[in-house]
Amino acid sequence: MTQRLLRGRLLTFHREPQNGEDTGAYTYLEDGALLIRDGIIQDTGPFSTISAKAEDVPVTDHRPHLMMAGFIDTHIHFPQVQVIASWGAQLLDWLNTYTFPEETRFASDGHSATMARAFYDQLIAHGTTTAVAHCSVHKPSADAFFTEATRRNMRMIGGKVLMDRNAPQALQDTPQTGYDDTKALIADWHGKGRNGYVITPRFAITSTPDQMAMAQALAQEHPDCHIQTHLSENKDEIAFTRQLYPQARDYLDVYQSYGLLGRRTLLGHSIHLEPREIDVLAETGAHPVFCPTSNLFLGSGLFDHARLSARGIANGIATDVGAGTSYSMLQTLNEGYKVLQLQGTALHPLQAFHWATRGNACVLGLEDKIGTLAPGSEADVVVLNARSTPAMALRMDRVDNLSQELFVLQMMGDDRSIEEVYVSGTPSKVTGPQPELAKVPA
Predict the structure, then answer these.
(1) 40 pLDDT more than 90
(2) I want to staple 320 with a disulfide (CB 3.0 to 4.6 A). Which of 128, 163, 172, 324 is the partner?
């Protein structure tokens, strides 16, 4: 039995804060403690109370830093780690110029394994302990993704993309091979350890009706798997989708007609939505996912969080690396704040940090396992340092409450603000210079 007692300033959420005065939505302790046993949080509370119950347990003191649940990223592309920050035009041009050529390299077992190690190092360095990822069309990319997740004992959700048209031949499967590979991956990985599988038709443009029907079959056969795809990111994308599926009432109707919408469905971007589409999202419980740095980088548009939330729709928030420009959920919240400001909505920092932790856990239906520091939760913890840069330290000299500190972290923080990360109760942040990645032929 492995036990650990973490001491520090502690923040955890019980529900979404309605505003900055909603103190009942969270617990904040100036001198708090987490008692962890075998990767699970056993108890949480004031240090004096918890330490008295665990006299022989080693203590790691993180004061004066802030302990929170690890960040959750609900939309990221594992094969795009080496095309982040690639200059380009808008979505379809960017995919054809950078993304699709890069993803062909993931047919290689060796390249996939090398990139998986680098990908997870970046997640941990930025305080992310759970992510929902698109792998490439190649089965080896998903095997490498789950192999590395298993090695690190991280709660990760991933899936190989299904795509059988409008991409290079080296990136196409067929309806049958996509189905067969997905079935094999679900059998090998879903529910094994902390792994979860997400059925992943990339988007309507790259899947024929036959493949969409296969995705429907997979969803019916595996109702405990998540489903992820893209929706209404770019106006040219929407127009092309309408050409390919002329019978559809709108973009969302493509997925709706194949039975792919439900509470386990994640729809990346969801920017340019018709009124009927919003009605269907509200009825089915499917989740739009806000990707602010990507939407700004590609000039895609402004996600209307307030309008969707007013309909009772629960939205995720995510980095969308590699069109997204940072692995950091802090920087994602930074840009998300600005996007919402342009639409007249001021995102309070308490709401922002709830969104990146418990909020995203609720979107995934995993709030009983991750996203909080409640007893019984898996011990994924991030320790945040709001004085991690000279500019932040200068600003912090004038900060006098928790909300102000959180806003400094949200607007100025990045990987330098991540003091430590615990995955299943084990310290996991990589420190010091990293070895150069080997050149692995595609």
Answers:
(1) yes
(2) 324
Burial state string for 45-63 with b = 16 or more CB within 10 A and e = fewer than 16: bebeebbeebeebeeeebe
Q: How far apart are CA 13 and CA 381, in angstroms?
A: 13
Q: Is 195 helix (H, G, I), strand (E, B) or coil?
A: strand
CA 233 from centroid of its chain's CA atoms = 17
pLDDT higher than 50, residue 63: yes
Handedness of CA 298, 264, 202, 140 (dihedral sign): positive
pLDDT at 442 over 70: no
Indicate the average pLDDT of the chain. Answer: 94
Beta strands 161-162 and 156-159 are unpaired
The pLDDT score that the predictor gives to residue 43 is: 97
| Helix residue ranges per DSSP H, 318-386 | 329-341, 349-354, 360-364
The answer to whether the CB of 332 falls within 8 A of the CB of 324 is: yes
pLDDT digits (tens, 9 = 90+) for 239-294: 999 999 999 999 999 999 999 999 999 999 999 999 999 999 999 999 999 999 99
CA triple 34-315-339, angle to 5 deg: 100
Q: Are the C-beta atoms of residues 227 and 240 closer than 8 Å to each other?
A: no
